[in-house]
């Protein structure tokens, strides 16, 4: 029976009047209750409602009285509630309890309430009294709290896994699952950059996007379609923040790995990644027919760029050079920077002919002009090639072989390509043994100085001595300077050896001739690497202070080619040494080209090759005469090297050369003497 049918039925007026008899008294009691109150007679008609009930169900005052109570119940529960009502009236001891109740408003909307039911005895007869309230807001609030609790738990769990280093792909899948559990979504996707990490649902165009970001750095996004309120948006933003933590950690790991494996200046592979790629290339040789290959690129005289234009310009040139190298090699090849001006190319599946062709292509590319900050640079490089065939698994040895080949290429004239062979391997091993032995010799005191006199040709008086380095091995065999000076220069031992030589030479000279200003000078050779050391003036000053030798009695010999286009540090050192009062000597003069007018030197040494040709080569005699004349005009002393017989001495004297040095006047000896 529906509400209309209940409307059509009824009781006689005397019963209704009897039921309504106590309305005023009952209303006075129930009207002030804070909850909605409805009283119903045994016939199911409403005999009383308070104002809260009328408001709750959407009726005007007095409109519900006399109507069947079923009008307040939804269709789905109406029959069950009617049976329950009849049960309440039939029970001898009426039940009183609170239950969940569904209500129907006048406008047809339904709500969920909490209702207390019970039979109340009145003078007019028993009444079914229902007191309750709309629990919709409460239930929604509780549902919201439960939903928020689940969301917070999801955020906490996901955050913990993110901080523990879980895989970002797994985290994205878990995030999608959590969003589906707690939100009413039709579509969700998690992206990192352009990569989709996880998603659910069909494609959609009406999406709401939440950035996965930390500060100004955006890692990806969460895109969803669904019914979103403020709580849902807050949850999705929190989810994005958790993923940002994981993505940020991954970005940091990737950045750290990139920095650990790449050169910070050029972005090329560094030594560690180069070695890794070389190991991989060598492993392939055992499976495939091709060989692994290393091309070691050693730039020629790049240090001069740094000193002439500054390190910033040098760095900019290295960056431009790195781009050119990458553009020149094959796509699968790895270009690495080992440091300074040394680069390496690692190739897989290559033969010797192709490797040599690549080497020549690289030298041509390097020689092409490079314009950096308006300055045009033309570079050259010595390139060494080493091939690793099947069965060879030592990447460090292959790199060392390529380095040795590059060293040989540089020694053969620079700008060349050299392929490593067994001869070079023996030479490289010998250089390593020599460097190690030389370092031991320095610490064990096996180095010594020999002094060769420099005389005035007119009367053969000794005006100074050149300090020459000697190395006596434990077996009593003396090593020639040519056997170890080059190795010392290459390994940087020359700096320590040079400082020792300066100190010893100054002490020997002061001991032999005293500390007077006008005594014979001692002549000491400076290597190119020593001249480039920023602390050279300090090293020289310390040697003079410790020995008591006057600065005017020290001559430092510099090779002519070192001063040509000398870097800034070397030029600054030359100026500082002159300020110190030390005399500078240009060694092997005539083998290159220098403007003596621009060089702060006190003497030049005429190369022994010109002296040896005197008497047989008119051209060499003319060169000697020109050097002597130029030096005299500039107030610079000229010293002829390598004088071995009286005929050479006589010719030099006739040409006006004032000083000479050579075996004619004395072989290098262990002590400084005033006798030739």
TrEMBL record:
Pfam families, alphabetized: EAL, GGDEF, PAS_4
Domain EAL: 431-676
Positions of the GGDEF domain: 290-422
Domain PAS, chain residue ranges per copy: 22-75
Entry-linked InterPro entries: Biofilm_reg_signaling, EAL_dom, EAL_sf, GGDEF_dom, Nucleotide_cyclase, PAS, PAS-like_dom_sf, PAS_4
Entry protein name: PAS domain S-box-containing protein/diguanylate cyclase (GGDEF)-like protein
Taxonomic classification: Bacteria, Bacillati, Actinomycetota, Thermoleophilia, Solirubrobacterales
């Amino acid at each position: 029976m529906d509400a209309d049918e209940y409307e059509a039925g009824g009781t006689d007026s005397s019963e209704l009047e009897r039921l309504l008899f106590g309305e005023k008294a009952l209303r006075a009691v129930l009207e002030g209750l804070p909850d909605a109150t409805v009283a119903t007679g045994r016939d199911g008609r409403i005999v009383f409602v308070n104002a809260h009930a009328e408001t709750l169900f959407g009726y005007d005052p007095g409109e519900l009285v006399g109507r069947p109570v079923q009008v307040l119940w939804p269709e789905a529960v109406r029959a069950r509630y009617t049976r329950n009502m009849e049960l309440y009236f039939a029970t001898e001891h009426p039940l009183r309890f609170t239950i969940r109740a569904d209500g129907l408003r006048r406008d047809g909307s339904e709500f969920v309430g909490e209702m207390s039911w019970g039979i109340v005895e009145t003078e007019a007869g028993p009444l079914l009294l229902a007191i309750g309230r709309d629990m919709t807001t409460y239930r929604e609030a509780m549902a919201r709290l439960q939903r928020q609790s689940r969301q917070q738990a999801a955020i906490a769990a996901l955050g913990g896994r993110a901080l523990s280093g879980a895989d970002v792909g797994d985290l994205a899948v878990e995030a999608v699952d959590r969003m589906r559990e707690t939100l009413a979504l039709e579509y969700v996707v998690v992206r990192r950059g352009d990569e989709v990490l996880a998603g659910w649902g069909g494609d959609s165009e009406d999406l709401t996007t939440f950035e996965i970001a930390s500060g100004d750095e955006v890692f990806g996004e969460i895109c969803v379609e669904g019914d979103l309120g403020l709580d849902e948006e807050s949850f999705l933003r929190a989810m994005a923040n958790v993923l940002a933590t994981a993505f940020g950690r991954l970005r940091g790991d990737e950045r750290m790995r990139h920095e650990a494996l790449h050169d910070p200046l050029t972005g090329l592979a560094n030594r560690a990644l180069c070695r890794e790629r070389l190991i991989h290339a060598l492993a392939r040789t055992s499976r495939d027919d091709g060989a692994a290959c290393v091309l070691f690129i050693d730039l020629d005289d790049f240090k001069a760029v740094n000193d002439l234009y500054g390190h910033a310009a040098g760095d900019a040139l290295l960056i431009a050079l790195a781009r050119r190298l990458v553009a020149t090699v094959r796509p699968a090849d790895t270009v690495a920077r080992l440091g300074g001006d040394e680069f390496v190319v690692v190739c897989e599946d290559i033969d010797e002919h192709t490797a040599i062709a690549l080497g020549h292509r690289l030298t041509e590319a390097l020689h092409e002009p490079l314009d950096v900050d308006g300055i045009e640079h033309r570079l050259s490089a010595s390139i060494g090639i080493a091939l690793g065939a099947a069965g060879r698994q030592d990447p460090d040895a292959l790199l060392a072989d390529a380095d040795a080949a590059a060293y040989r290429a540089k020694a053969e004239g620079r700008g060349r390509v050299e392929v490593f062979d067994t001869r070079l391997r023996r030479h490289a091993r010998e250089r390593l043994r020599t460097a190690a032995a030389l370092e031991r010799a320095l610490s064990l005191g096996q180095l010594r100085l020999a002094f060769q006199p420099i005389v005035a040709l007119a009367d053969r008086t000794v005006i100074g001595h050149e300090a020459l380095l000697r190395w006596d091995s434990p077996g009593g065999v003396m090593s020639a300077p040519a056997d170890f000076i080059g190795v010392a220069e290459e390994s940087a031992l020359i700096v320590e050896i040079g400082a020792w030589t300066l100190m010893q030479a100054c002490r020997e000279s002061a001991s032999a001739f005293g500390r007077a200003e006008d005594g014979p000078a001692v002549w000491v050779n400076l290597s190119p690497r020593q001249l480039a050391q920023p602390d050279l003036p300090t090293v020289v000053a310390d040697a003079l202070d410790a020995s008591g030798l006057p600065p005017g009695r020290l001559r430092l010999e510099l090779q002519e080619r070192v001063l040509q286009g000398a870097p800034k540090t070397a030029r600054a050192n030359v100026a500082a040494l002159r300020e110190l009062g030390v005399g500078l000597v240009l060694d092997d003069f005539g083998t290159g080209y220098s403007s003596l007018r621009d060089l702060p030197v006190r003497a030049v040494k005429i190369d022994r090759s010109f002296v040896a040709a005197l008497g047989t080569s008119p051209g060499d005699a003319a060169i000697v005469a020109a050097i002597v004349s130029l030096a005299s005009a500039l107030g610079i002393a000229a010293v002829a090297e390598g004088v071995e017989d009286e005929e050479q001495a006589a010719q030099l004297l006739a040409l006006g050369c004032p000083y000479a040095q050579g075996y004619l006047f004395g072989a290098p000896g262990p002590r400084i003497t005033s006798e030739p």
